[in-house]
Amino acid sequence: MTATAATDLLYSDTERELAAALADLLATRAAPADVLARTEKPETCDTDLWRTVAVDIGIAGLLIPEPLGGAGASYRELAAAAEQFGATVAPIPYLGSAAVATAALLSAAHSSASSAGPVSPAAALLRQLADGTTTAALAVDCATCPGGGFPAAVRVAGSDGAGLARLRGTIRGVADALPADVLLVPGEGVPNGLYLIEPTTPGVHRTPVVSLDMTRQLCDVSLDGVPARQVAVGAAADAAVDAGLAAGATVLAAEQLGLAQRCLDMTVAYVKERRQFARTIGSFQSLKHRLADLWTMVALARAASRYAAACLAAGDPDAPVAVALAKSACSDAAVAAAQECVQLHGGIGFTWEHPAHLYLKRAKASSVTFGTPGAHREALAALVNLPGPE
Question: Which residue ranges form the domains of the chain, and what is each CATH number?
Answer without folding.
Answer: 13-130 (1.10.540.10), 136-234 (2.40.110.10), 239-383 (1.20.140.10)
